[in-house]
Amino acid sequence: EIVMTQSPATLSVSPGERATLSCRASQSVGSNLAWYQQKPGQAPRLLIYGASTRATGISARFSGRGSGTEFTLTISSLQSEDFALYHCQQYINWPKTFGQGTKVEIK
Amino acid sequence: EVQLVESGGGLVQPGGSLRVSCEASGFTFSTYWMHWVRQAPGKGLVWVSLISSDGTITSYADSVKGRFTISRDNAKDTLFLQMNDLRAEDTAVYYCATDLHGYFDDWGQGALVTVSS
């Protein structure tokens, strides 16, 4: 099973600032990496797939980079609606494992 | 518009059984692989089970293997998760999710399952 590790667990950022979230895989997943956003009491929502492709309707503030074992999600200028929990997931192998999540909170 | 609506969650005693359902609309259900993913209170997402579009392929997380059964009714656009021998550690919100390209495009709102005496 591929283990996904996200860092940091919590990121405190001021509105308008940039946030960078990291996700590391225990073995190469190529570009088979997705990011999801989850707000309190809501289901996850697909943000990024293929490590860098934004899903339909996702703001250009969100960008993904990386391949192999190291990935980042950058939110260029945090808006109030961006404060949420973010999950990465590899989908090259079964089981399709998730990281433990990074909470982006208001500083 | 894709819609996934879970139902069937609730409170059950340890050792009990429960079946959660996920009714799909807005897409051709029979062409999608489907998954169940759960999230314990305050925790991250954990993949639970998958089923192929025609129902012939299934897979389970080790933690639920032998206790949970995934199935689908393509005529009724509905996904199921039968959960037996439930344990306290199965307490979670259970989400169904679609899979056309490997990642999970759309998610239901979730069904809360609480295992407690």
**Globular, elongated, flat, extended or rod-shaped: what is the shape of chain A?**
globular
Could you list the spans of chain A in which at least 5 consecutive residues all have pLDDT below 50? none
N/C terminus separation of chain A: 35 Å
The major pleated sheet of chain A works out as: 6 strands, mixed
- Measured as a percent range, the helix fraction of chain A is under 10%
Q: Quick one: biggest sheet of chain B?
A: 7 strands, mixed
Instruction: Quickly count the helices of chain B.
Output: 0
Order of strands, widest sheet of chain A: 2-10-9-4-5-6
| Total number of strands of chain B | 11
Overall average residue pLDDT of chain B: 97
Q: Largest interface, per-chain counts?
A: A-B, 22 and 21 residues
Note the total helix count of chain A. 0
Question: Can you walk through the features of this model?
Answer:
The complex is a heterodimer of chains A (107) and B (117). In chain A, 0% of the residues lie in helices and 48% in strands. Chain A has 107 residues and is mostly beta strands. Chain A has a six-stranded mixed sheet with strand order 2-10-9-4-5-6, with no helix packed on it. A four-stranded antiparallel sheet of chain A has the order 1-3-8-7, with no helix packed on it. The radius of gyration of chain A is 13 Å and the shape is globular. The mean pLDDT of chain A is 96. Chain B has 117 residues and is mostly beta strands. Chain B is built from no helices and eleven strands. In chain B, the strands form two sheets. In chain B, strands 2, 4, 5, 6, 9, 10 and 11 form a seven-stranded mixed sheet that branches. The A-B interface holds A 32, 34, 36, 42-46, 49, 55, 87, 89, 91-92, 94-101 and B 35, 37, 43-47, 50, 59, 61, 95, 101-110.
